[in-house]
Amino acid sequence: MARHALSGKAVIAGIGHTAFGSLPGRSPVSMIVEAAAAALKDAGIEKNLVDAVLVKPPTSNPAMMFQVGVSEALGLQPKLNPNWNQGGAANIAMISYAVLSIEAGLCDVALICFADNPKTGSRHAYGSAKGNDAVFGLFGTLGPYGMIARRHIEQHGTKYDHLGAVAVACRRHGAANPHAQLRKPLTLDEYRASKPLVAPFRREDACLVSDGGAALVVMSARRSKELNVPHPVPVLGFGQGQTAWDMQLRADLTTTQATVSAKTAFAMSDLSPSDIDIAQFYDCFTIVPIMTLEDYGFCRKGDGGPFAAEGRLEIDGDLPMNTAGGLLSETGMPGMQLIIEGVRQMRGEANLQARRARNCIISNQGGIMQTHSTLILGQSL
Amino acid sequence: MRCSHCRNAFLPARFECPACLLPDPKWEEASGKARLVSWVVYHKPPDPAFDTRVPYTVAVVELDEGPRMITNIIIDDPESLRIEQQLVLCIQQEAGVAVPRFVPV
């Protein structure tokens, strides 16, 4: 196989984000403007070069036509301005669309952004029940993800300590990150002592709820050279897969279409798991990185838990994961922070810089694992 | 629910069969037998309406006829549950509504 012609054609030229945590009084639009200004400054370009604004709507208030208000606040009238309703998978899906649109000549410089304020605003979106599920008391995301974790535990021998190892790794990395919302490290003993919330999950198995915004600037590698962008990071591959169906309707709860998403991204970049040095895996719940390791081909089904328990995901392991803390420790933001940390690692400017940093893989997902997207980044040009 | 055309059995209820896409599926009485696919135990009430009910068990079950559904398992010791365990339907009346729950065989 050879690299697809699109592989390496585009770059992430700039990254920006607000503070993470409680940001009372800040609207999502306001946070996007702050993050976008930071990303443009990071890329070293003026805002008038942006001709595409791609927006993932805020989970807690996915208002109709939210994206046009974002463009208005940014003082832009872009050629492209989609509002991408795909949950956490939207971030990488929007990068994919930006790369394709740039290649097709539909736009030149894309701004990709997201912000939400569920911590100081409404958390309703994370705690509601779907239809008849309310009668049975199945509310929020802990329950459905807990079903997936329980099945994995029973079917593949995954242990509570394996779930704990994922939380310990992310919390260790987040504790070292000055921007992280939760900077308190977690020991496995503390994890074990924690009471079940929705068994098999404890509080430490679940991601944070956070206010904050983030933005990325995407352009072609050629354009980044013309514009003297200081640290462009090449997009080597991307892919998607949609599990789509409700959790209870899936024939096997312990695997998802993340397999297809990763396979597509690996094929585009002509890389395999053995070429990947760093992972930023969506960790809304501790079971998810374990399944991602398996579904992406880093290990066999059932070996994801032991992989984590051996410390291999920690900064001194052979596949450092969520090196800024992920959703469990840096911010509960649905996925942009993982891309931003991947970019930092590929630039060699991460807070906890991995020793080997040739390629980084990033997983994004949405809903109850309904939507999946994968991104592979290469070393900064 | 069963498709009148391809005989596919499915839940939740729909106007068209998700396998062959043809309309007019019919309701059919199920045997009430099922197997346990997975379960969780709520220790913290997700809503004030469940304050007096915790801890309670929510499960995914697969009916013998094929469809899968969300339900509750009526059990004192959820730690004793195992995947693939056989279950049987137990309809409970709640605020005038017949709620389909399951108990271990």
Structure description:
The complex is a heterodimer of chains A (381) and B (105). By secondary structure, chain A is of the alpha+beta class. Helix content of chain A is 35%, strand content 17%. Chain A is built from 14 helices and ten strands. In chain A, the strands form two sheets. In chain A, strands 2-3-6-1-7-10-9-8 form an eight-stranded mixed beta sheet, sandwiched between helices. In chain A, strands 4-5 form a two-stranded antiparallel sheet. In chain A, strand 9 and strand 10 form a beta hairpin. The model of chain A has no long low-confidence stretch (mean pLDDT 97). Chain B is mostly beta strands. In chain B, 0% of the residues lie in helices and 38% in strands. Chain B has no helices and five strands. In chain B, strands 3-2-1-4-5 form a five-stranded antiparallel beta sheet, with no helix packed on it. In chain B, a hairpin with a 2-residue loop joins strand 4 and strand 5. The model of chain B has no long low-confidence stretch (mean pLDDT 96). Classes of the chains: A alpha+beta (381), B mainly beta (105). The interface between A and B is medium-sized, with 31 and 29 residues.
Mean pLDDT over the residues of chain A = 97
Please tell me how large the radius of gyration of chain A is.
Answer: 19 Å
Order of helices and strands of chain A: EHEHHEHHHHHEEEHEHEHHHHEE
- What are the low-pLDDT stretches of chain B, counting only 5+ consecutive residues below 50? none
Q: SS-based structural class of chain A?
A: alpha+beta
Radius of gyration of chain B: 16 Å
Main sheet attributes: strand count, strand direction, barrel closure of chain B: 5 strands, antiparallel
| Protein chains sharing the most extensive interface | A-B, 31 and 29 residues
Count of DSSP-assigned helices of chain B: 0
Which oligomerization state do the chains in this entry correspond to?
heterodimer
- The strand order across the widest sheet of chain B is 3-2-1-4-5
Q: Which range best describes the helical content of chain A: under 10%, 10-25%, 25-40%, 40-55%, 55-70% or over 70%?
A: 25-40%
